[in-house]
Design a protein that fits this description.
Blueprint (H helix, E strand, L loop, with lengths): L6 E5 L3 H12 L3 E6 L12 E4 L5 H9 L3 E4 L21 H7 L2 H10 L7 E4 L2 H10 L4 E5 L9 E4 L15 E5 L5 E9 L5 E3 L4 E5 L2 E7 L3 H20 L4 E10 L2 E8 L9 H4 L4 H9 L13 E8 L6 H6 L3 E5 L10 E9 L1
Parallel strand pairs: 1-2, 1-4, 2-3
Antiparallel strand pairs: 5-8, 6-7, 6-8, 9-10, 9-11, 9-13, 11-12, 12-15, 13-14, 15-17, 16-17
Helix pairs in contact: 1-8
The protein binds adenosine monophosphate (AMP).
């Protein structure tokens, strides 16, 4: 057990790190953020900030020397430089990061454990794309295997001729068959160091332009019917990885059952509602897990919870939002609003 008062290292400087650090502070821990960017909004609420490149081994080793445990809030942290952490435990593991960083490896990993994925074909060349259009068929989505998020690095191919204009850059891609889903949902779990797993209620998620717009709990009947099978799969994934911390799997609910889309080895936007909407949030349980503390109850704190993201530069009236006492406003302190950028979220509890 890592006693309160010790320092937790967080790789990545975004809003997830900020909310992890706030949960850690409540339990008496100090946090130290490591991130390459100067505007690290997580660092604003932390005791220490190392601004350095991921491959700066000296900075990484000095950071590790200050930490009792290290975690990550960003799944595109390159794995090789993490050797510089030495003996300081990294939780979840570098292996979990490696599997989840690549759409191909995560799909294979989950399929090997019995999960159903969209049909897919690896695309490195124009010939591969032509083959994919035959084996998988259109409509489908061409996605970068690595570093895609919030719908970035994706091209929708509704008919074969849509592929004509796509200039392949040489980076590894995956062509996925289009899934006709009725709804989307996520399974968020936390696995402790003793292997015990807790789940939060699954939110029904709505995406706009590939970006999460809204998460609602409880999900509709159709999703609820598919949650047990999805949870079973998610637990198998967590066990197979010897996972410690919060793990998220995203699913499409279809007439044939849950289809796995992707996983995130971290706290997730579709779990932000747990800050006010659950007895223990995803952020607090992640901190408890990596520090070896018992996990908190994940029951709902209200019968209906809805989280919506504040995205881009749309004018929002904070006064009006806060005038409704059911609303909880979270702003991440990002300086510049850009289209598609997540600036904050609003959680609404309903009775
Ligand atoms: P992703 O980055 O893979 O999470 O994709 C972002 C969003 O695009 C998903 O949440 C879906 O709304 C949509 N999407 C991604 N892949 C597929 C697919 N194979 N079939 C249908 N919709 C998809």
């Amino acid at each position: 057990m890592i006693p309160p008062g010790e320092t937790i290292g967080i790789l990545g400087g975004g809003q997830l790190g900020r909310m992890l650090a706030m949960a850690a502070a409540r339990l008496g821990y100090r946090c130290h953020v490591y991130a390459p960017e100067a505007e690290a909004i997580a660092a604003e609420v932390c005791a220490q900030f190392t601004q350095a490149a991921w491959d700066d081994a000296e900075a990484m080793a000095a950071f590790a020397a200050d930490c009792a445990v290290v975690t990550y809030e960003f799944e595109n942290v390159p794995v090789a430089p993490l050797k510089a952490l030495g003996q300081v435990p990294l939780l979840p593991s570098a292996h979990a990061l490696e599997v989840a960083q690549d759409r191909l490896s995560e799909k294979r990993f989950v399929a090997d454990l019995g999960g159903v994925t969209a049909p897919f074909h690896v695309v490195d060349t124009a010939d591969d794309l032509a083959e994919a259009l035959v084996s998988v068929g259109s409509p489908g989505i061409l996605k970068t295997r690595r570093e895609g998020y919030d719908g970035k690095g994706q091209w929708r191919i509704m008919a074969d001729h849509d592929a004509d204009g796509i200039a392949l850059s040489g980076e590894p891609l995956l062509f996925e068959g289009f899934i006709h889903f009725t709804s989307e949902f996520s399974v968020i779990l936390c696995r402790g160091q003793d292997g015990r797993i807790v789940f939060w209620d699954s939110a029904e998620n709505t995406h706009e332009g590939g970006i999460l717009a809204r998460s609602v709990v409880p999900a509709g009947e159709q999703v609820l019917a598919q949650v047990p099978a999805a949870r079973e799969l998610a637990a198998r994934v967590a066990d197979a990885l010897g996972y410690v911390g919060v793990l998220t799997l995203e699913f499409f609910a279809t007439a044939a059952g849950p289809v796995f889309n992707e996983m995130a080895p971290r706290v997730h936007n579709s779990g932000h509602w747990t800050i006010e909407g659950a007895l223990t949030s995803q952020f607090e349980n992640h901190i408890r897990a990596i520090c070896g503390l018992p996990l908190g109850a994940t029951d709902l704190a209200a019968p209906h919870v809805e989280m919506r993201n504040v995205i881009g530069d749309a004018a929002e009236d904070w006064d009006t939002i806060l005038a409704d006492p059911a609303n909880h406003l979270h702003l991440y302190g990002k300086a510049a609003a850009r289209p598609g950028r997540k600036m904050g979220h609003v959680t609404r509890l309903g009775w």
